[in-house]
């Protein structure tokens, strides 16, 4: 008697107590066999958004399959810990230039951030203003859609595209358009040293004006942040430059001279501690000032020129500005509808941590919502991948 061929439902029943596929093919079988919603989980460090369903873990889809330092390209499984990627790149004096944020301090989570989770949420840090976001470094992805079909988009080189750029579409979709299994990324060389120009005691509007001046200069700032209330005491404004030591020293001095009209500026080049050090910029990157503070945390993207005025309407307990004022991190009372307090504005606000009874993500305008609905119907016709996470 020939062996019985397992039906997809048999596979789902067998795996439902351990939804951790070891291969891409096994993941595809599980999704095809699913008879209910699935909650996609990588390293479990970034539980942003509200969704339900059986937990489907991608942590076993791990490992670097290709790394070509000369081609500035790395390819790895979606479940690969970011720490593994960063260690591998560091051996060749390279890095993920977009500086992905580590959400663990802010959200109080454990585990390891993964490559797929980073891509799914388009996680980017302070250097975004200079080099772009995570999606700008995405070369290709492999994914499984909501019907259990394995799909490859993009490749291993950066090139122009016509039509839909599906690689970038997947980046920031939070798993709603497919479960990532492999990610191809462009990487960049690391830098020799870093310098920070610091101004103290500036009010928000003056600080943002100073940041805008620095970013509009020819001195190639790669970070521009402001703390109205910093861990280091009075308000602190920070501008970062990176590169070869002689160039960093020269550009930092020129920036200091340029910004002296806003207040007395100081320089730290190659600092190993304090706000001007690499650790100080990790503090900016991870919104660490709010990590041990009670309350809700919001991430608000705005026009830098409007940042101070919008922050004044938030009724927040504390704020932090990044991206030259284009990104505001806000700490508010638990349950506070910060989006409602701001009112209509040109931007979007996301509830990163908290209990406010409002949509986690900014509600989309009707035309965009219709387009989004159509895309999800195409890539996940049963609506089982992280349902409701972005609504």
Overview of the molecule:
There is one protein chain. With 391 residues, the chain is an alpha+beta fold. The chain is 28% helix and 24% strand. The protein folds into three domains: 8-190, Uridine Diphospho-n-acetylenolpyruvylglucosamine Reductase, domain 3 (2-Layer Sandwich), CATH 3.30.465.10; 193-285, Alpha-Beta Plaits; 288-353, 2-Layer Sandwich (Alpha-Beta Plaits), CATH 3.30.70. The strands form five sheets. It has a five-stranded antiparallel β-sheet. Strands 11-12-10-13 form a four-stranded antiparallel β-sheet, with helices on both faces. Strands 15-16-14-17 form a four-stranded antiparallel β-sheet, with no helix packed on it. The longest helix is centred in the middle third of the chain and has 15 residues, at 245-259.
Question: What topology does this entry show?
Answer:
Layout (H helix, E strand, L loop, with lengths): L7 H8 L8 H10 L4 E4 L12 E4 L6 E5 L4 E5 L4 H10 L2 E2 L8 H4 L7 H6 L7 H4 L6 E7 L5 E5 L11 H5 L8 E8 L1 E2 L3 E8 L3 H12 L5 E7 L8 E8 L1 H15 L5 E5 L8 H8 L10 E6 L5 H7 L4 E5 L4 E6 L5 H5 L5 E6 L12 H14 L12
Parallel strand pairs: 1-2
Antiparallel strand pairs: 3-4, 4-8, 5-9, 6-7, 6-8, 10-12, 10-13, 11-12, 14-16, 14-17, 15-16
Helix pairs in contact: 1-2
